[in-house]
Amino acid sequence: MQETIKYWRGVEELNNTPEFQKHAHNEFPEFLPVSETSGGDASTPVAPRRDFLKLLGFGVAAATLASCEAPVRKAIPYLNKPEEVEPGVPNWYASTYFMGDIYNPILVKTREGRPIKIEGNTLSPITAGGTHARTQASLLSLYDNNRLKAPSIRKGEDQWQDTTWEKIDQEIRTKLTGVQGRVVLVSNTIISPSTKTVIREFGAQFPAFEHVTYDAHSASALLRANGGLVPGYDFSKARVIVSIGADFLGSWISPVEYSKQYITNRKVTADNPNMSRHIQFESFLSLTGANADVRVPVKPSEYGSVVAALYNRVAGGTGAEAIQAPNAAAAKQIDAAAKELLANRGAALVVSDSNDPAVQTLVTAINRALGADGTTINTAVPSYVRQGDDARMVRLVNDMNNGSVGAVIFYGANPVYDHPLSQQVVSGLKKVGVKISFADRADETAHLADYICPDSHFLESWNDYEAKRGFLSLAQPTITTIFNTRQAQDSLLKWAGSTSDFYTTIQRTWSGIAGNGAAWDKVVHDGVATGTTGANEPTAPAAPMTLAAAAVSINKTSKASGNSFELAIYEKVGIGAGQHSNNPWLQEMSDPTTKATWDNYVTMSQADAVAKEIEQNDVVRVTAKGKTIELPVLIQPGQAPGSIGIAIGYGRTHAGQAANNVGANVYPLATVSGDQILFSNVVTVEKAGVDKPIAQTQTHHTVMGRIVVQENTLANYKKDPKSVTEYIKIATPDGPQSPQKISLWQDYEYKNHHWGMVIDLNSCIGCGSCTIGCQVENNVPVVGKQEVLNRREMHWLRIDRYYSSNATREDGGFEKMENPSENPSVIFQPMLCQHCNHAPCETVCPVAATMHSTEGLNQMVYNRCVGTRYCANNCPYKVRRFNWFNYANNEKFDYQMNNDLGKMVLNPDVTVRSRGVMEKCSFCVQRIQYGKLEAKKESRRPVDGEIVTACAQACPTNAIIFGDMLDQNSQISKILNREKGERAFHVLEELNTQPNVTYLTKIRNQA
Fold first, then answer.
1. What gap in Å lies between CA 271 and CA 259, rounded to an integer?
2. What pLDDT is attached to residue 692?
């Protein structure tokens, strides 16, 4: 007998079926129990109608359809509309981002009064429109619900009470007036001339006042070796670069500026086939090391040996006084590097991130011997972005413990978390009578304070900056304060008894630079200016070491650790030193080299892992100075044998929901040598007997012989530019043919526009700025660690990282080719929807949800998509993302954005996708449409450069070029015409998908 088919009469009937209830409970166990009126079993959970609609992906529409449950909201029109606000039309404000070691003049896009996107300011001579991933993501911290809502006063152990600014000002003024002992303000590096003026005015009212500058990841030794200033490095003028541990493309000193300079000499053309030569000595595989032409793994203890040996060879060749230094393990590479440096005297540069004064003393001497001063180092324009003094901070910790400090104020500093002597900091704070913090949340240090006076977000504030001598920039508020916060500068002015505000102080500071009226308005509009105030010059720089003393010190300290492991502590590109830990965009941004998210880990070489019988994800105990932390192991090609690496910025306990208890805090394992902090130590490593999975967005290492990315050497390029790129040919009866010549497809005819993209692999450094820029622009959700482990990350644009392999197909096939070299060369490849003209996804969609536009875009019609995922299965590039959950409206994925405040960051021009649809790169179609409409208003065609995708605009090295391929004057057309048959190739060209994304072969300056 044929089974009767059951049809439901409505969603309520379906909602009450046991099958649906079981499915709903598995995914959302928080559903309500069945009521007596439902007629079901009271022990069986049931979803209300609104939740049923959410499960089907209706999202916000559920509240509309279930009208009896939805509150009525009335839209109130403007009675007196602000002149500068036009609904639907963005406003842009020039500002500046500066935190830690990232300095970035920016433009802030606002819609109806709320900032929604950050772009680089092209008027800045320092960063020239580039941005860092942290800069892009800093927007989300504005809407962080973990920020303090008002000033707070301690009322007991872990007891705080919100108060008014009037009350807290009165109490603090009274306490400071009667303070016994020294008053100390501890801050991170301040490059604001006006802020330093305010601090001086505040300190003038106390008989004993000190301003201590403390950086969690300091360059104290570099400052000491260079008269208290960071040298004005110019990588664009260097034909040979040697770096000893300095990740200058990722997180060292000024990465956006250095990336711009570095890539200037890395863009090759047939007309100018020249490149700089980059040699990197380091312990762990950094972003900069991954971009080097030659990379030499060395232990942290060998940094001094490398620098001393290099100095011996360079100084001996230039007639300068030579010193005896221990021989480095990589003597052959050091000899070769020294020869190249000497051959390029006046166009050579050596840098190091070591915080050992002896090492930095020799590096400075090497650069002087090479004639770098005035060429690759601009001595007239030093950098001010690192001013932390380790020695003064260590003295302060001792002074607090001996009771000589009466009051301490923390501004942008969190030493309870990020100082190696954190336990002494805690004990010292107990002996300080008045403790004040300007933290925007009750962080680890503020948690021990008496008063928390929350500082406003930088997008809510006025400020000024002088990152390099003679180069100024401004920050202006782009939104009124969301919470009851106040700028730290205004708080200091009030406590100093001033009736002025900080804005007036800035205008007074700039009076000789911009004046008033139109000149001041222009500076505010542009965001940048030239001139100097002298506020950042060192008052009493520490005396540098002599060369003889440096040699003695290196001979003493550069000793191999024997059978013990050496710990190299480093800073990740995304998370930084910990200030950004509560930003879920950065937590989910995969590390450029390890591709890991949402955790820190121990990087270890394959050889050491085999010797210790350790496998990936095994948890190990790392012990030094009697302190132990436990972390999983990530086996990292390129890690120096005998060393391990651990990133700072994790292990927070009072940062917020996204950061707390993620990973472990490695700061206590750093070495304090006298009054200097060294980010290395000798440690023991033991297996803990458990494992912890590391969430990685890429778990394969090589291309396994496939033509996915292409690379070649500069020598081959100079011989024949057309020989460096391989093109697939298909055998036919008429001879080998290009795949494009053989097709069953009917080609599209583009009559108006044909949008395309070129990605220069020589310019892509893998920094991830494009990934975050795309995420911000297109409302890409955060999914969390477990979903990344489930391979459900949602990024529309990813950066694939491929290692070289020593194996070939003849060595045992693809399995062995997947194993990377012990010290591999690395190539980065941004991968996004290729917008194929012969798109495999379009032919398999049963509802025509994915379709081709008349301008070459592969489009997604979300309302049609029913979630079959056929398109994702048929996409050879694996760039389509399925929205498994309604991530933005689900408590399981509440990473700051699942609330009304967090949703203020969303771009209103882009649909917020609900559950159950496929999504992917759209070439920022909203920007294309906006640009076309603006041009149409003026009765013209869009001009090349007016329409730029978010990824291209975020890139600090201009690796991504977007434009109209039908416009013969566009930059993309010129590049494709120039590179055709030379470096241009398509990924998996043999499939004849005919992508609209073209890549340019990577060229390495190798022998």
1. 23
2. 94
Both tokens of 467, joined, read 């990152």
Comparing CA positions, the residue from 230, 211, 207 lying closest to residue 219 is 230
pLDDT score at 204:
92
- What residues does 621 pair with on adjacent strands? 630, 686
Do residues 406 and 183 lie in contact, with contact meaning Cβ atoms separated by under 8 Å? yes
Q: Collect the ranges in the chain with pLDDT lower than 50.
A: 1-9, 11, 30-74
CA distances to 434, 762, 998 from 959, in Å: 51, 8, 12
pLDDT of residue 52: 42
> Could you tell me if 277 and 263 are in contact, meaning their C-beta atoms sit under 8 angstroms apart?
no
pLDDT at residue number 317:
67
Backbone φ and ψ of 493, nearest 5° = -65, -40
Strands 91-99, 102-111: pairing kind: antiparallel
Q: What is the pLDDT of residue 947?
A: 94
State the pLDDT at residue 238. 95
Q: How far apart are CA 125 and CA 119, in angstroms?
A: 15
Q: What are phi and psi of 637, to 5 degrees?
A: -60, 140
Give the length of the chain: 1007
Q: How far apart are CA 875 and CA 840, in angstroms?
A: 6
- Look-up: residue for tokens 């294309």? 928
Which domains are seen in the chain, by residue range?
11-65 (no CATH), 231-369 (3.40.228.10), 561-696 (2.40.40.20), 711-1004 (3.30.70.20)
Distance CA 728, CA 760 (A): 20
Q: Coil, strand, or helix at residue 604?
A: strand
User: So what's the pLDDT on residue 437?
Assistant: 96
Phi-psi region of 32 (alpha: psi -120 to 50; beta: other; left: phi over 0): beta
What is the C-alpha to C-alpha distance for residues 726 and 705, in angstroms, rounded to an integer? 12
Distance CA 140, CA 460 (A): 13
| Nearest-angstrom CA–CA distance, 595 and 828 | 11
**Residue burial 572-599, b: 16+ Cβ < 10 Å; e: rest:** bbbbbbbbbbbbbbbbbbbbbbbbbbbb
Residue whose pair of structure tokens reads 């019988």 in the numeric block: 613
Write out the two tokens for 146: 């973990």
- Inter-residue contact 308 to 281 (CB < 8 Å): no
State the residue for tokens 């923390």.
Answer: 410
Residue among 184, 172, 205, 204 at smallest CA distance from 408: 184
| Beta carbons of 147 and 123 less than 8 angstroms apart | no
Distances (CA, A) of 175 to 407, 413, 773, 945: 9, 22, 46, 58
Amino acid type, 436: I
Report the pLDDT value the prediction gives residue 890, as an integer from 0 to 100. Answer: 67
pLDDT of residue 44: 43
Q: Which residues of 282-306 are buried (b: 16+ CB within 10 A; e: fewer)?
A: bbbbbbbbbbbbbbbbbbbbbbbbb
